[in-house]
Amino acid sequence: GAEPGPGAGSQPLLAEGTDTKTYLWARYHEMKKLVYDLLPPGVCNLLNPAAIYANNEISLGDVEIYGFDYDYTLAQYSNLLHSMIFNTARDILIEQFKYPEGLGKYDYIPGFAIRGLHYDVQKSLLMKIDAFHYVQLGTAYRGLKPVPDEELIELYGGTQHIPLYQMSDFYGKGPSLKQFMDIFSLPEMTLLSSVIDYFITHGIEFDQVHLYKDISDAIRDVHVKGVMYKWIEKDMEQYILHGDEIYAVLNRLVNHKKKLFLITNSPFSFVDKGMKHMVGKNWRDLFDMVIVQADKPNFFTDRRKPFRKLDDKGSLQWDKINQLEKGKIYKEGNLFDFLRLTGWRGSKVLYFGDHLYSDLADLMLRHGWGTGAIVPELETEIRIINTEQYMHSLTWQQALTGLLERMQMYQDAESKQVLLEWMKERQEIRSLTKNLFNPQFGSIFRTFHNPTYFSRRLGRFSDLSMASISCLLNYDVNFTFYPRRTPLQHEAPLWMDQLCTGCMKTPFLEEMVHIR
């Protein structure tokens, strides 16, 4: 019988003598065969982990000036750093803040947390929130243990919705809800969860606000007191990745007459040693401007701090800055003076950074610069997306969702039981797919079917996103990036888009098989 479209209320005519239960299971098995026929062996590996992905149309030929952050943008660090940060901050808590010595038994757990999570300070909850401000069920943790869905919903007054705008500011800094956005925050989230786990396990009452502040301060001390800088400087071979590729990127841009500048919060001595390691002793010759200890994001929003010049030894000069000279090093300053002194405005500037708020948001929203987000997780997640297990799980999940949508008008007792079984299977597949990325929190880009809050901000504040700066080597310096036209909910998907991207909508599977 002919099937109604989504939202239609009439039931298809069944062949005489066919009960609805038999009909529903027949459609289920037809669809399952269809999905597996549609995905022959070798259909995976559609996506390139070293590709650059566009949220906006950007022509590199129009870009005259390239700007870069340093940490996790030019300098990509080994994950070994996370254990060192965790251990040092944990020891600061024990030795300086007088936390229980039993915390010393906790070690860093690689892969426990992911970037972009929110932490509710008053409730001691670490959780993943989607683009519509709902918590993804199964991804709320207090300490190292998941919070049951029913308890989570009760904590927020009978809903999964988090009143984000009441609890947090634009930059995700609270006061009562904090978003962890940079890669350095992975050890902080793990330490936070470990300390809470210790207190809960030992039945020790604690003040949530003090605990959060103490851990933030301990982590900050690792950075501010220069401990982390010393580790990296001591063993750059171990901690800094892809140095030779960074030299290749910068050198190629300069050879094509592009201007380069660097704006970092790190101190000059640290950046100088790292750049000499990656690029060579004459690295400063490649840059028109180098600004250190910039205090981003305040650098982009606050007009008060003037630039100060550093001499070749890194000592501060006192003279007033009326121009920014090539080859010189500057400290602090602000973007408004930078724009006034350079005249570098609008889309002819393309700036790369790893932190969506500190590096990119204000540049795009207030100043119209092009922005490139460095997202190392793209590489690991794309490798998972390219597996046969993921491709089959996702496609069957979408097909099953389509069946549920189209067959929900059958409301007799036997049909309801079939639909319940399908819903249960769908939920199991969703959990399995989530766990492929991270058993606790899943993908940093998706909460089941919705984009994550992190993903929505990524699309809002970056024109381009890539796993590392070295991805630029895969493209000509005049290459134009065209964003993929993905259909809106009210638009019919284009066949070519569907076939090329693997984004298959179930109501059209039958027709697509014929096209293949």
From TrEMBL:
<comment type="similarity">
    <text>Belongs to the 5'(3')-deoxyribonucleotidase family.</text>
</comment>
<protein>
    <submittedName>
        <fullName>5'-nucleotidase domain-containing protein 2</fullName>
    </submittedName>
</protein>
<feature type="active site" description="Proton donor">
    <location>
        <position position="71"/>
    </location>
</feature>
<dbReference type="GO" id="GO:0046872">
    <property type="term" value="F:metal ion binding"/>
</dbReference>
<dbReference type="Pfam" id="PF05761">
    <property type="entry name" value="5_nucleotid"/>
</dbReference>
<dbReference type="InterPro" id="IPR016695">
    <property type="entry name" value="Pur_nucleotidase"/>
</dbReference>
<keyword id="KW-0460">Magnesium</keyword>
<keyword id="KW-0479">Metal-binding</keyword>
<feature type="active site" description="Nucleophile">
    <location>
        <position position="69"/>
    </location>
</feature>
<feature type="binding site">
    <location>
        <position position="71"/>
    </location>
    <ligand>
        <name>GMP</name>
    </ligand>
</feature>
<dbReference type="GO" id="GO:0008253">
    <property type="term" value="F:5'-nucleotidase activity"/>
</dbReference>
<dbReference type="InterPro" id="IPR008380">
    <property type="entry name" value="HAD-SF_hydro_IG_5-nucl"/>
</dbReference>
<dbReference type="InterPro" id="IPR036412">
    <property type="entry name" value="HAD-like_sf"/>
</dbReference>
<keyword id="KW-0378">Hydrolase</keyword>
<feature type="binding site">
    <location>
        <position position="69"/>
    </location>
    <ligand>
        <name>Mg(2+)</name>
    </ligand>
</feature>
<dbReference type="InterPro" id="IPR023214">
    <property type="entry name" value="HAD_sf"/>
</dbReference>
<feature type="binding site">
    <location>
        <position position="354"/>
    </location>
    <ligand>
        <name>Mg(2+)</name>
    </ligand>
</feature>
